[in-house]
UniProtKB/TrEMBL annotation:
Assigned keywords, A-Z: Oxidoreductase
Keyword Lipid biosynthesis: no
Residues covered by the GFO/IDH/MocA-like oxidoreductase domain: 135-267
Lineage, highest ranks first: Bacteria, Pseudomonadati, Verrucomicrobiota, Opitutia, Puniceicoccales
Pfam families xref list: GFO_IDH_MocA, GFO_IDH_MocA_C3
Superkingdom of the organism of origin: Bacteria
Gene3D superfamilies with a match to the protein in the record: Dihydrodipicolinate Reductase, domain 2, NAD(P)-binding Rossmann-like Domain
Molecular function as annotated in GO: nucleotide binding; oxidoreductase activity
Protein name listed in UniProt: Gfo/Idh/MocA family oxidoreductase
Signal peptide: none
Domain Gfo/Idh/MocA-like oxidoreductase N-terminal residue range list: 4-112
């Protein structure tokens, strides 16, 4: 078995928690070089995970002939540039979510992957519902919920409450692009369950703290990314999607999904870690996934398996990533045009 050598570009929290340890656990896989935002932080990560080399610039990692695959753990602002360069250099790519800054960058990533079909191009998937995804899709396929009428999701955070807090990366368009709070990562799950995209979308949002300090001692800058956003989308079938993302709530907040049909409702409570079902005329009951349907975080192993065995990427391929970028871009466009319906 040929050894697979990984180069890491951007060693943020998820990369340190998941990707580096995940790769190091796989037989015949090594993490050989890391490049973080500074030489000092690169050295710190290398020492912590026994990575033999550091690079001062991400382009060094992409050009390194000893590296077979690139793991991108930066914020979205570099995902497209690194991905396109890495694929052109003959490297497999695993990039952290969100896919890119906007649809245009996502399209460039898709084009680069199509130009090198022999290479694996994967995006880190939305992980929150992995345990229940197969069960939910089976229930939807069975038709027991009847005609689907509405799917909704809600995520409440306290991220933007403190007006004195500096600009966080999710509010910084230069780092995050059109990605808004966790809208894309929650919509990705709906897309996974339904297997289709909505036709049109309307969004309403607000920024209450109009200016924030950029960096600990930086200048005041205008806040462009909404602190709270509500989205309504409509599908060709008449199904509605209603999403609420807010960074304005302190306390326990709400976190989950509801799928409502003409004969029943599924409720996914992510805070409680519980899926429940209520059919017309019956009582609400907890749904426990069958053991064979339970999935968990397997991102690094899936990536390696696709490289070694040619297994197709399901969580998440570039086509699905581009679809959720279209959704988030449509939300920003609707907001910019005073909350009008726009095509997805």
């Amino acid at each position: 078995m040929k050894k697979l050598r990984i180069g890491v570009i951007g060693a943020g929290a998820n990369t340190r928690l998941r990707h580096i340890p995940g790769f190091k656990e796989i037989e015949g896989v090594s993490v050989d070089v890391v490049c973080n935002r500074s030489e000092g932080s690169s050295r710190s990560v290398a020492d912590a995970f026994d990575i033999p080399r550091i690079a001062k610039d991400w382009k060094e990692v992409v050009a390194d002939p000893e590296i077979d695959a690139i793991c991108i753990g930066t914020w979205p602002y570099l995902h497209a540039e690194i991905t396109v360069a890495a694929l052109a250099a003959g490297k497999h790519v695993l990039t952290e979510a969100r896919m890119a800054m906007n649809t245009e960058e996502g399209e460039a990533m898709v084009e680069a992957s199509l130009n090198r079909p022999e290479l694996v191009a994967q995006i880190v998937p939305s992980p929150f519902t992995l345990k229940w995804d197969a069960t939910i899709k089976k229930i939807l396929a069975s038709g027991e919920l009847g005609e689907l009428r509405e799917v909704s999701f809600t995520k409440a955070l306290g991220l933007n409450v403190d007006s004195k807090a500096p600009l966080n990366w999710r509010q910084d368009r230069a780092l995050s692009g059109n990605n808004t709070l966790m809208l894309g990562i929650y919509y990705e799950v709906v897309q996974r369950w339904l297997g289709e995209e909505p036709d049109r979308l309307l969004a309403s949002g607000a920024v209450f703290t109009k200016q924030r300090q950029k960096g600990a001692n930086g200048e005041l800058v205008e806040v462009e990314i909404p602190e709270t956003i509500d989205v309504i989308a409509e599908y060709e079938s008449g199904l509605r999607l209603v999403g609420r993302m807010t960074g304005l709530e302190l306390g326990s907040g709400s976190d989950g999904y509801v799928i409502a049909g003409s004969k029943g409702t599924l409720r996914m409570d992510l805070k409680a870690g519980k899926l429940s079902k209520c059919l017309l005329g019956g009582k609400e009951t907890v749904v426990e996934p069958a053991p064979e349907d339970v999935a968990d975080w397997n991102v690094e192993a899936d990536f390696v398996n696709s490289i070694r065995e040619g297994a197709p990427i399901e969580l998440t391929n570039f086509a699905d990533g581009l679809a959720y970028m279209r959704f988030t871009d449509a939300a920003i466009k609707s907001l910019a045009e005073d909350s009008v319906w726009v095509s997805v």
